[in-house]
Amino acid sequence: MIIKTIQIGAIGTNCYLVWDEKGGEAFIIDPANYTAEIANTIKDEQLRLKYIILTHGHGDHTGGVTMLTREHPEVKLAAGLNEATLLADPNLNYSGEISGHRLSLKPDICLSDGDELKVGGMTLTVIETPGHTEGGISILTDKTLFSGDTLFRSSIGRTDLPLGDYDALIKSIREKLFVLPDEITVYPGHMGETTIGFEKAHNPFV
């Protein structure tokens, strides 16, 4: 598994382009925009993009969806089952304010806790982690967790936006993420990487 981190936008959203080096099948997590770096990597590595996965529906994580689906019509858009309301409503997802384009998105695949997606030799397991948004999800594959805006290095996602819930966020982290092995590497929606073990020991919010 190869992970390419592409930081996009003024608030530094981490977009992750991930592929199976043996077969070239790929998925992309939270494309804040469709940048030249994304396009060139897909072309240069001869990747077959299978899924766009949204950890949640805020505009700083979704701005590149329209162009990606236009350039790769075979790709499927996947998001949490309970995120449909936020994704569909620009007044809730702040897409216009953040990306300059009011987006109303409808996933091809709605994901629930424990669902699995196959990409090449990789198995992606869905973990529902509501709190930052009602339908937020994290993605676990191998010893890697993509946590979206649920868990950051020494921090957590904000809950003062529409459909945010602080108590639900803390519960998600404690009951869904902190039960994972300490050595799991966490790739968050913003800022740098961390591990489950480090956050259990040092995160001041949990």
Description of the molecule:
By secondary structure, the protein is α/β, with parallel strands linked by helices. The chain has one domain: Metallo-beta-lactamase, Chain A (4-Layer Sandwich). It contains 7 helices and 14 strands. It has helices at residues 36-44, 65-71, 84-88, 90-93, 95-99, 166-177, 196-202, and strands spanning 2-8, 13-19, 25-29, 48-54, 76-80, 109-111, 116-119, 122-128, 137-141, 144-148, 151-152, 155-156, 185-188, 194-195. A 6-stranded mixed beta sheet has the order 1-2-3-4-5-6, with helices on one face. A 6-stranded mixed beta sheet has the order 7-8-9-10-13-14. The protein has a two-stranded antiparallel ribbon with strand order 11-12. β9 and β10 (144-148) form a beta hairpin. The longest helix has 12 residues, at 166-177. The radius of gyration is 16 Å and the shape is globular.
Looking at this protein, list some descriptive labels.
7 helices; 14 strands; about 210 residues; alpha/beta; 6-stranded mixed β-sheet; Metallo-beta-lactamase, Chain A; globular; single chain
